[in-house]
Amino acid sequence: MLQETAKAAWEYGRQFLMNGRVADYIPELGKANPVYLGLCIKTPDGKTVEYGDVEQRFTMQSICKVVCLAAALQQEGFDKVFSHVMMEPSGDAFNSILKLDTASNRPFNPMINAGAIEIINLLAPTFAFSDLLEFVRAICMDDDIVLDEAVYRSESETGDRNRAIGYLLKSKDVLTGDVLQTVDLYFKLCSLSITARSLAGLGLVLANGGVHPENGIRLLSAQTVRTVKTLMFTCGMYDRSGEFAVRVGIPCKSGVGGGIMASVENRMGIGTFGPSLDEKGNSIGGGHALEYLSRELHLHIFDSETG
Length: 307
Description:
The chain is of the alpha+beta class.
């Protein structure tokens, strides 16, 4: 049933691809083919089901915020992390500075750019880029993840708004490190080259309580996993997170590179890739494919039935 439903979900998602557009505000991302759509599902028993463009490499973009938050929670602990960022949905675009300048000195949550930059500020004294790359490879179950140099250059050349966020945090004595170095590390993590399979692997590690399903190694504590998945559910789909929680009901995180990572408790990790985005910056094909899967397999966390 899983295989047939996954194929139907992929085919359903493909119907919506031409209703979106690729993220051309970062010029290198604007080169993506809008008709790509890949869907990969991994289960704890080692089964993989996949359709479409699952081997196509693209960049992590905002999905790196999940990994950074997990690393910070592991390294610094819950109380310290959330003394620097809050846990509330912002209701604003992911790169907005409105509430940061008017409502709170702390970023509203770690899933918006301001929050991610502050989380990286916490990580930077302890972790070099190479350390975080190894962590990403482990948690995504993909040793082939590397830095996409072209996207990194494009991010850096067009990233003045993120630098402005960094300097605003610095002016409020929230960001204590070097702004340019912190934001540069953020650009590099956004520019890591992944696949839909990588995202399914990450989703599966989270679904498996932080334990690598193949070797049994604990990569994340149970509390870290619970915190990360809760913030994915409430804040992971930009300012469409509430609607997505109602329609799909799975902890997810999207990125403007076209990826969506989803984690279904004890059941599966799901990765989608479709660079054609809706107006909020979420993959339009991937989002519809996930909605189909959730409906047909009863994956919504508040469903009374099980698939």
